[in-house]
Write a structure and sequence with these properties.
By secondary structure, the chain is an alpha/beta fold. The protein is built from 18 helices and 13 strands. The chain is globular, with a radius of gyration of 20 Å. The protein binds uridine-diphosphate-N-acetylglucosamine. Uridine-diphosphate-N-acetylglucosamine (UD1) binds next to helix 1, helix 2, helix 5 and helix 12.
Length: about 375
């Protein structure tokens, strides 16, 4: 069976690494890795290949940044040639980035089977580019591999046949387990002169927060108060850096003495940082899941989440970009009133095995 595995942007790498490893163990699979080049920076892309032991991509489409429409269109045009050359039986896509949807559309047009890992999660918010990517990808994928029961419910409500759906668990947690020792060996706390549980980690990159001046200012208002009590480490995403500059908020940020702005960091350092935080402030999807597994309180700077299980079972709460709500939740942490949480079913480090077993059980 010939499979093309696809990655494009940072959150794809930690999902694909264990899948490639597991496929290597199965003799009946021949795989190649295609990187669309949606992310191309050393810090957003290449660094992860080395750290996570992902083989160098067989093909890099070098698409780079652009408007979403142009980016998707260019990925599609370039990927069509790859399908024509390699003639795969299946493509495997992960997550919800533009590359996931773009390559799936091409495969569907070419009659190539599609397996989508992390299928079925829904925020219900179609203003989010990722929600459109999720809906489109799942609508055309042949096999829908879900991380949680809520995702299966969503797929069933959308009318997908039960035999297309598999409950495989959370693939990202495979990577977290695989690198647990390396993560804890990271020296990032020493480098930044931080003590475990005496700092907060912040990430911010959603267009709804950072492309909107008033949302960004509301969040900054909350940060101003928080950093008076505890240092905040903030690896700044390139989109966010650009918008801070555009909105003229750079100076306001440098006046916060306890807000430690750093460049984006690698997987191992970041894992060390969040797993030793007092709490985490984020608008990322994956970090809501990782904090749940680490049992670290997470305040999500969004109005909704496609990962509700991190709230119902994990350590996550939603605050939006509302300074009062953020500070209210932070106070709950200061008062020791945060929920403990538990690790959801199948977030156990064995998702890759279940994914490949599922694929090999299908007719081909
Ligand atoms: C993308 C994903 C998002 C994911 C995020 C993780 C989509 C729709 N969005 O968002 O789901 O959470 O990645 O980072 O697919 N840039 C660089 N270097 C790079 C890549 C981007 O400097 O290597 C800058 C460019 O100025 C670019 C901007 O970041 O315009 C945004 O990049 P883009 O890939 O469009 O989306 P992200 O915001 O990174």
């Amino acid at each position: 069976m010939k499979i093309i595995n696809i990655v494009g942007a940072r959150p794809n790498f930690m999902k694909m690494a264990p899948i490639i490893k597991e496929m290597n163990k199965r003799q009946s699979i021949e795989q190649i890795l295609v990187h669309t080049g949606q992310h191309y920076d050393q810090k957003l892309s290449h660094a992860f290949f080395d750290e996570l032991g992902i083989p160098k991509p067989d093909i890099n489409l070098n698409i780079g940044s652009d408007t979403h429409t142009r980016q998707v269109a260019r990925i599609m045009m370039a990927f069509e040639e790859i399908i024509d050359d390699y003639k795969p039986d299946m493509i495997l896509v992960v997550g919800d980035v533009n590359s996931t949807m773009a390559c799936s559309l091409v495969a569907a047009k070419k009659g190539v089977k599609i397996t989508h890992v992390e299928a079925g999660i829904r925020s219900g918010d179609r203003n989010m580019p990722e929600e459109i990517n999720r809906l489109v990808t799942d609508a055309i994928a042949n096999y829908l591999l879900a991380p949680s029961p809520d995702a299966i419910d969503n797929l069933q409500k959308e009318g997908h046949a039960p035999e297309k759906i598999g409950f495989v668990g959370n693939i990202m947690i495979d990577t977290l387990h695989m690198h647990a020792t390396d993560i804890q060996s990271s020296k990032i706390l020493d480098t930044l002169s931080l003590r475990a549980h005496k700092y907060v980690t912040l990430t911010l990159h959603r267009p709804s927060n950072v492309d909107n001046k008033s949302s960004l200012q509301n969040i900054l208002q909350a940060l101003k108060v928080i950093q008076e009590r505890i240092p905040i480490v903030f690896p700044v995403h390139p989109r966010t850096a650009k918008m801070i500059e555009t909105f003229g908020l750079k100076e306001e940020m440098t006046t916060m003495r306890n807000l430690i702005q750093i460049e984006p960091i690698g997987y191992l350092d970041f894992g060390k940082l969040i797993s030793n935080s007092k709490f985490v402030l984020t608008d990322s999807g994956g970090i809501q899941e990782e904090t749940t597994v680490y049992g670290i309180p997470c305040i999500t700077l969004r109005e909704n989440t496609e990962r509700p299980i991190t709230i119902t079972e994990g350590t996550n709460e939603l605050a939006g970009a509302d300074a009062n709500k953020i500070l209210e939740l932070v106070n709950k942490i200061w008062q020791g009133q945060w929920k403990k949480g538990q690790i959801p079913t199948y977030w156990d480090g064995h998702a890759a095995q279940r994914i490949i077993d599922f694929i090999l059980q299908q007719p081909h």
